[in-house]
Specification:
By secondary structure, the chain is an alpha+beta fold. Helices cover 24% and strands 23% of the residues. The chain contains 4 helices and 12 strands; from the N terminus they run H-E-E-H-E-H-E-E-E-E-E-E-E-E-E-H. It is elongated and about 85 Å long.
């Protein structure tokens, strides 16, 4: 009978060990989810590119990382590629999505919460900053260049223009960027519905800085396009401060 005694107490010990293991796993998962949420909300966030408005810099279905933290202190600069929430009326109304099983919806919500899914990126846009608050942005001079505060900028290194076309924009404009706003344009100028196309809206085509999520700095997918996103600082180096 003494040989049967250890067998009588062993199952509860194993059960307690399994419960402790499950508790530790749940704690690790919750901490990981919390860290991922904090990183997504305040540090870095992933987006995908749904259109060709930023070609050749960004291609359709590219995945990018957006720096949300650094601009909180340093602000933004001309040439930055930024992701921003629709200021209102820039994007067409999204088609109603067919109902999905509750489990799929819950999984997508959880993945979006921790920053893995990019479902919530559908109401955001990505463009290049051309004008900062106070800048006087005009299109175009005799060479087809945009001028910022009277200084021409040569954008041909990154613009995606039809062969033989050197004009930075085929639509003219003359704007002064209000405080706390930016003027943005796509690199694929003839196929970008950017600030130029929304001047008749209440916002005048300007993007409120509060709508800007952050600065796109890295292409992560596909792997053959992995690399830093060029802000072309040299293009804007000679631009003087606004008067």
């Amino acid at each position: 009978m003494t040989s049967d005694a250890p067998a009588a107490v062993q199952p509860p010990q194993r059960r307690r060990g399994a419960l402790v293991f499950l508790r530790d796993v749940l704690v690790i998962i919750l901490i990981a989810a919390l860290v991922s949420f904090v990183v997504k909300t305040f540090v870095v966030r992933s987006f995908y590119i749904p259109s060709g408005s930023m070609e050749r810099t960004l291609l359709v279905n590219d995945r990018i990382l957006v720096d949300e933290l650094t601009p909180r202190w340093s602000g933004y600069d001309r040439g930055d590629v930024v992701v921003f929430k629709d200021p209102g009326g820039w994007l067409p109304a999204a088609p109603q999505r067919p109902a999905r099983p509750p489990l799929v919806e819950a999984a997508d919500w959880a993945l979006t919460f921790v920053g893995i899914s990019t479902t919530d990126a559908q109401d955001h846009l990505v463009k290049r900053v051309i004008g900062m608050p106070g800048d006087h942005v005009v299109c175009c001079n005799a060479l087809g260049q945009i001028t910022v505060n009277g200084s021409p900028i040569n954008e041909l290194d990154y613009l995606n223009l039809p062969e033989g076309d050197t004009a930075a924009s085929n639509s003219e404009f003359d704007v002064t960027v209000p405080d706390d706003r930016i003027w943005v344009m796509g690199d694929n100028r003839d196929r970008s519905q950017d600030s130029r196309a929304h001047q008749e809206l209440p916002g005048g085509g300007f993007v409120p800085l509060e709508n800007v999520v952050g600065r796109a700095f890295l292409t992560t997918w596909p792997l053959d396009r992995f690399g830093l996103i060029d802000t072309h600082d040299e293009v804007f180096r000679a631009v003087p401060a606004p008067e």
